[in-house]
Specification:
Mean pLDDT: 81
Structural class: mainly beta
Helix content: 10-25%
Low-confidence stretches: 5-22, 28-36
Oligomer: single chain
Radius of gyration: 35 Å
Number of helices: 1
Strand content: over 45%
């Protein structure tokens, strides 16, 4: 090939490169928003056994809720914002015979527990209570 032909190819390549649209910069990632969830303390209340709970009353910070004819197992997770002071709970159960085991656990640590049993036809009760403060 002649030098003129090679030079012409190079010049044509340079001109076409200069005339083409510039390559856009890579897209920057979309801004991320971090959702901060307030730290919480969780307490898991769990009741197991063979009894049918005729009445279960859960009182948390003075507010009571009641359930009737509760089949076991039963559990409830209580959530409290950290640094929110003292919180109290009480779980009261009435049952007609059978066994009941109730416990309160937080961060894998046993806080409190109770157990009971009664003959069929008998009226029995069990209570679990506790508090947490930070």
């Amino acid at each position: 090939m002649s030098r003129r032909f090679v030079c012409a190819l190079l010049v044509t390549g340079l001109i076409s490169a200069c005339g083409s649209a510039p390559t856009p910069p890579p897209e920057s990632p979309a801004p991320t928003t971090t959702t901060t969830t307030a730290a919480k303390t969780e307490i898991v209340l769990e009741v197991t056994g063979t009894a049918t709970i005729t009445t279960l009353t859960l009182t948390v910070d003075g507010t009571a809720t009641e359930e009737k004819n509760v089949a076991l197992p039963w559990n409830k997770t209580l959530e409290f914002p950290q640094k929110s002071g003292k919180h109290e709970w009480k779980l009261e159960m009435s049952y007609d015979g059978g066994t009941v085991h109730a416990k309160g656990v937080s961060a894998g640590r046993l806080l409190t527990q109770t157990s009971g049993s009664g003959s069929p036809g008998s009226t029995n009760s069990a209570r679990l209570s506790g508090s947490i403060s930070d």
